[in-house]
């Protein structure tokens, strides 16, 4: 289960980074990225 969550978060962070690169004006992707990164850190991914 933990591995699945870690994999899901990795994909989420990847998507957030892509979105961040595509639209630097939009602040939502970076907010999602920070949230996902924090959660991944808490889980220990």
Any key phrases for this structure?
45 residues; mainly alpha; 2 helices
Provide the fold topology.
Blueprint lengths: L1 H21 L5 H16 L2
Helix pairs in contact: 1-2
Tally of helical runs: 2
* Proportion in helices: over 70%
- Radius of gyration computed on alpha carbons: 11 Å
* Helix-strand makeup class: mainly alpha
Total domain count: 1
Describe what you observe in this structure.
It contains two helices and no strands. The two termini are 12 Å apart. The relative contact order is 0.21. With 45 residues, it is an all-alpha fold. The protein has helices at residues 2-22, 28-43. The longest helix is centred in the first third of the chain and has 21 residues, at 2-22. The chain is elongated and about 30 Å long.
Question: In summary, what is this structure?
Answer:
With 45 residues, the protein is mainly α. It has helices at residues 2-22, 28-43. The chain has one domain.
